[in-house]
Every structure is written in C-alpha cells, then in structure tokens.
## 1
Amino acid sequence: MGGDGGVDVVVAAVLAALERHPGLSVTLTGDADTVRATLGDHADHPRVAVMHTTQTVSMDEAPALALRGKKDSSMRVALNLVKDGSADACVSAGNTGALMATARFVLKMLPGIDRPALCSTLPAANGHTHMLDLGANLGFEADNLFQLAVMGAELVAAVDGIEAPKVGLLNVGAEEVKGLEAVREAGRMLAASDLNYIGFVEGNEIFSARVDVVVCDGFTGNVALKTAEGAARFVVSNLKDTFKGSLYGRLAGLVALPVLRAVARRIDPDRHNGASLLGINGIVIKSHGGANAKAFGRAIDIAVLEVAQNVPEKIHQHLVVRQQARTGTA
C-alpha cells in the first residue's frame, strides 16, 4: 500500500515477476478489495494470495508511531509473515524509517550485528558496486563499520558470485592519517581481517572498477547517493538540451543516439532499485518510494536472489567464525 504508485505499481510488478520466476509465490498484504480490483482478471492467480489488513503506514509517519500504533498495517503483516515462515522475504516501497524500525522489532537483529544497514547497487566501471549504509543509521563506531564491511562482502559474494569482493572504506583521502578516528580504526580492523580490504577510497572512486563494496556511515552514504543521482540527471538533461540547441546538435545527436541510449540504460536508476536491509534476521528489500513497476520488479528480483543464496545465514556464519577466531574457540 506504500510508495508513490501504491497498489497499481506493486501489482504490475508482481505479475511480471511471476512470469520471470516460475517458482515464485507472492502474498499481497493490504486492503483486499483494492488489491483484488487491481489484480482484475488475475485475482485468482494460483501463485498470488491476498491478505487483508486494516491499516496503512503513511510515507511521512513517525517510525515509532507506526511501530506502536499500526500492528495491522500492510507493512507489519508482511514482516510477520517472514517471522513465522509463511514468507521468505518482504519487499516494500513504504516508509523507510517505519520499515526499518518494524523489521528490527519483528525479525530482530542477527547475532553479532548492532545496527541494520541499507545496501544498494550503483553503476560502476565493472558493472556495479554495492554501497552501505545508505541512511539506516547516521552514525557509526569502528566496530559498526567493520560489521558493515562483513555484511556487504557476504552480500556481494552471494548475489554476484565474487569469491573475495574488494572492500573499501569511504574517506576524505587515501592516506592512513586522514579521516575520522572511527574510520581510521575501522581501517586497521579490516586490514587485520580475512576480508579483501583494499584500503580507503575517495568519492571519485565509488564508480571505478577498484572496489566492489563501499563502506560508510548512513549520513555520508545517503548524501553520496543523492549527489550521484542528481549529477546523473544533470548530465543527461544538459546533453539533451545541447543536442536540441541547433541543427548541428540535432544531427550529432542522431549519430550519437545508439551510444547515448546504451549509457542511459547503464545508469538507469530503475536497474539499481532495491536496497537490502542487512543485519536483520530475515530478508527485507526496500524499494524506492517513487519506483515504477519495472523498478519495483527489480526489488523483487533481488529478494528472490537473496532467498536462493540465504544471505542472512552467510552473514551470520562469517561473524561466528570471526568470534571464534577472537576467542580461540572452535
């Protein structure tokens, strides 16, 4: 029921996802009459169930109020289905803060993880890179940053098949003496770990082939993400204006059109929609609130992949091994 497009976007995305994934079944939580009406001729689809809920979390609702007062919201019921094993994952385009708070309350944290984190992909020279945290928490200590690195590395290893993902810490410089103390300490911890830590990376390296996982606190990550999105829109808009500005520009635009379309597809935000809420004892994918059906479908695809790869369990096992190494137990 959440997101700018609401039920229309979710239903269209689900029907397309069912075609892509023959083994997928989906439960749609929300106002049953609205959902079934939107499903139309597909209301009796054998792999679609509708679970009626009486409440909805608004996009601007305070997370604490949603957690305490919306126990029959579409978001809360969907997370309850994951908790009791009726569903393997939850995908939502709703209120981010409410989703994070409710998921943490309902599903609990993985042992060894202090705070959840949002991780998503960004286009890069080698295809894409994963970045976390993107806003779940605004401040981190060194150990929290280390946990982010573990979660990001395990996610990339699972979903991209990279055996030893290259992990970098976002910093104001590559030198060890630069940056906040928490970042420098996290760097020392990562250098002594079994992760493939490549050191500090600067903002201009996020989109390079040098790194597979970029680790930072939520404030920095969110600002970097929004800046990148704004810069991409600015460049595309200026290119369009330039090509339309004169006869020569229009002719040049026609020649360059195939290349421009290829670049546009590569940086298309719809292709990178779907942020994983890592650290939770379950799979929760946050879709952008303004996602269209194509973009929401991408979030569903990520959920399917993370279920197949059992990402939370792999994160948990990595932390168990680390704890055993610390304590000397087997």
## 2
Amino acid sequence: MCKATSIPRVSAKARKYVNEVLDFGFHNCSSPGIGARLERQFAERFGCRFGILHANGTATMHSALLAADVGVGDEVIVPPFTVFSTAAVALHAGAVPVFADVDPDTWTISPDDIRRKITSRTKAIIPVSIGGLAADMDPIMELATQHGLTVIEDNAQCFLGYYKGRVVGSMGHFASFSFQASKHMTCGDGGILICDDEELATAARKAAVLGFSTLSARPGDVVVAEELRCQPTFQRHTHFGYNYRLPEIAAAVALGEFERLDELVEMRKHSAACLAEVVADCDWLVPQKTPDEYVHSYWTYIARIAREEIDWTAFRRKFGELGGDGFYGAYLPVYREPILPKLSDAARNQPQRYPQFAGIMPDYHQVRCPTWEAIPPRIIQLKTNHFDPADAQRQADILADTIRAFS
C-alpha cells in the first residue's frame, strides 16, 4: 500500500503573495516584482537563463514560433497525440502543422517519423511530453541541428520530468509550460516560456507584449517606461506582437505554487504508484512505457486496454459505478478534429481567402499516423491530482475492483 501525507489545494505562500499584490495595488508602470521573481526562479530551476510569462500555454508556443521567424509557407512538425493547441499555434503563425507518428510504446513523437516528414519548408518541431513523459530528445535535437530547425518543447503536462539525467525543459531551443487548472502547478491559467538564448528570448518577449521596442529578456520587463511612453514622437512598436501578458496577481499564485513544485510532483507520482501497483497484476492493461533513464512526472497515468473484447465505455461505466472518479480517453488524432479537414477544404476551394495555405496545406482528410490511430480507442487516462493520499489509494482499489469485474 502507498504511503504519503495530504497537502493543501492552495499553498499558504500563494495567499501571501496575492496579498502582497493587493496591498501594493494595481499600477500601470510598477508592480511588486512578483512576475520578475517567478520568471527568474523558474528559468533557473529548469536550466535556462530566461523566462517569459504568458497568459496561457498556447500563447507561449505561438510566441516561440514568432521569435523563430516561423510564418507563411513554413511547416511545423507535431505529434498526433496532443492537445489541439500544439498544432493550432502553427496555424496562428500562418504555418502548416505536419504530423509525425508516435513510438508504439511511449506514445511520444517518433524521431524516425520526424526524419521522414522533414521537407525544405520545415522550420520547427514541437515534441510533446505527453502525460508527463519526455519525448526522445537526443535524436530530435540532432535532426534539428542537421536541418537548422527550432525545437520547442511542449511540456504542459511535464514538470520535473527527466530525460537521461537532464530536466525536461532544458534541451530544446524553447520550452513551454502551462499553468492551466489541471496542471502540476496552476494559477487558474497561464504559462511560461523558457529559453537560454538571449536574442531568441528577447524576440519572444516582444512577440508576447505587443512588439514594444524597448523590451528585453530581463525578468519582468513587460512595460515601457513612462518617460518614454509619454513622448509624442516615441516609436512604440517595432515588432509584430500580441497582448499575452500574465497579470501580476496570477503570477503571485503561480510563484507560491512553484515554490512547492517538488511536493506537487511527488503527489502525482504517489497517485501513479498506487495505480501502477494494481496495473502490474493485470496482464491486459498495458501502461505507457517509461524507458530507462527517463523520469515520468505523471500528469496522468495512461494505460491501454489490450483485450479487444473489453469495451472502453463499459470499463469506464463500471469504474464509475464502483465509485471511481472517471477517466479520460485519448484525444482524437489532432488531424481528425473537424476544424483541420474543414480548413484544408477551404484552402483548396477558396484560395483567395486563405492565400497563406493555398497550394501547401495537406489534405487532412488523407493524413495518417497508423501507429497512433490503432491505439486511442483503447487508452485510459487516470487522474493523479489527489491531494489526499487516501483518495489516491481509494481510486487504485476501485481500479482493482473494476479489473476483477472484467476478468
């Protein structure tokens, strides 16, 4: 039986830092510096020099693409097993998402299929640490070096995971993390982009903050000094950018949660360990493979139902009837979400309306990733966000009862 202690849903430090912001008040050109502290400390924890806070984890990746000069006519390679945002940011930048299949055991993007999908138009790769497990980063970075590509790690689901001794987030040219409510640490929504290259980090900052001319990669550099802004001849906007800033009060919550990140990750690992004990005794539930030298951070515990006669819906229904929290299936392969085939049809039929995609967008009706397509109908994604270890053990016991019901 797994052992651990319960932790609060929101840390005392988060409440303290929120009060600091409230006591300081809201001002256009000054703040108590909470956001700057979070940017600096987060980047350092993940082995980078620069952090840029954003309103969410989609905005982070969009800024990274813009900083890398990805745009119209370019291609961005992404996996089919991910949240839609990973592909959507390519479209936001005017580029085309191209899908590389997954490894059959880890379900992360396959470096071999990335190699097959690289063309003269490829500009970036966004590997996803799905469920909390890193992609195979060494060969991906080798391909990026060979072809001059930018790598943006999508680590929305992976905090303090490790790959061959390196913390996940320290290997790509950029790494994106989400603070959305379901993630390891949260402030309700938000995200951060980290980077080790000052020129790229500055470009990402400007992409995230309206392209203001004076912005830099320095922590907390998100506004133009009043003495400059008040001048009638001041040229504010030298780059194209968006208004993706994270409010200081949200940064205060995020800083409090970041300062207890280790215990938040250990909580997830504890829940996953309880589930893993149960799954180890079942020969027809196959967990996501964690290769040697990887450390999984278990945003969710993922397994595949390997017996064809067991219906996914019936299994979930029984789990719920026995008191289980429920679980998620896998997302559709992203290219099967209705918007992408609709968009490829529109680009073909109305090229004057979508000139950036005319002649280069794939027909997403025809896109296939056969390895991944065979897997999603059998996937279960079990929750790991149990702040009370007794709840984690109870869910594991219910999973065991559910397995017995089908055995």
## 3
Amino acid sequence: MLDDDLLRYSRHILLNEIGLEGQALIQSAHALIVGAGGLGSPVALYLGSAGVGQITVVDDDTVDLTNLQRQIAHTQARVGKSKVSSLQTAIQAINPTVTVSAIQARADAQLLGKLVTAADIVIDCCDNFETRHAINAACVRLRKPLVSGAAIRFDGQVCVYDPRDETSPCYACVFPPTTSFEETRCATMGVFAPLVGIVGSLQAAEALKVISGVGRALTGRLLMIDGRAMEFTELKLGRSANCPVCGTAA
C-alpha cells in the first residue's frame, strides 16, 4: 500500500475490524452498480471514497433537472449528459485512484451476464422489477452477493442476498417474479430527498462489509425504513424451496 493510500484510508485502517488487511480487500474489489440515480449516487460516492479499486456503473439515462433534488452525484452543469459519465466524473473528483467504467446501456440479461461475471459484488440501485429480477437471476447463477435497495415516497428498504450462503434467500424468494406488483416510480409518486441518501448509504455500508468480511451483513434480513417516523423494522427472511430462481425446483 502506498504512503498516499495509508493517509487517504487512515480512518478505515484505524478501525480494528478493517485495518490494513480489510482495506487491501476493499482496494482489490470490483463492484458493479446498476443504476446511477438517487441510490446509485451515494453508493458510488462512498465506494469510490472508500477506495474500491474498480467500479462499473451501468445506466441508460441522462441527467435531468428533476434529478438534482436527490441525485447528489450530478450537477446543474451536467444536465443532459449521461448519468454514468456524470457519476464517473464525480467519483474520480473524490478519488482519482479508482478505476471507473461507465456503461450507458439498459441492464438486460445478456449485458448483466458479462458484467456480473467480472464483479465481486453487485449493488442494485435500479427502479423497476424487471431489471431487479434480471440482476438477481445473474447473481444467483454466478454466485455473486447482491446488495438490494429501494426507496419511494417516505419508505425504503435494504437487504443482502448472498447465493454463496445456503440459507440466504434470493430476491425472487421475497418478491416472486410470477407475482404482479404495482410499479411505482418517483416521477409519479415522489420521493423524500434524504431517503435515497439513507438507503444508498446503507447499501454502500453493506457492500463494504461484505467485501472486507466485517461485521454481520443484512443477509436474510430485510431492513425497512419509515422516513416519516424515522423507524427501522427488520424482517427475517428464509430461502423458499419453491423459488423459481434459487429453490430446489429451479
């Protein structure tokens, strides 16, 4: 580790749970972030500042004026630019030692197969069930840990799905692909600006914990956030034998 690294990451290295070994694991990791908006912004900024060595960000959208209320990695000057290039600029302004790959594309099953294969951990920051299920399927198939988050109005949730753990459910165990869910979007329902920061920060924390092996991850536990009362509720989750993705019949 270079002298500059020892200085930059000194506050992590001072933590007994992380230390030099944990920071080295962080710096050698490759994180895939799917979605460069409200959740992707804090996730990318915290992973970049923490020194995750390689970060790949995929999103097909461009920065819009309505995004600036909550998508803190983007700026007025970058309205109209691709979100992934804007996020790349923001990460490297904080930490130029991080390698950032910006992919402006929709994260379909074919693309995810390639990107998840190359990653050590996947962070789901997207906003629709179709993509979430495609991400989950790729992570289950390739046995890659997935940190999932969502936020709408004043409600948020975070969970870790780790197919390397035989007791861990996958996203489809909790939200079956055969079940019809009403698609809710910020554009029609609204979202409390700091809530995406809370959820995204928790996702970043869980990702860093999984990478470095620190603490107890939210594997098999769905953390639900009520932003109105600022109450946190935890639901314990189990793997479903009938899950079409990770179950015994899959």
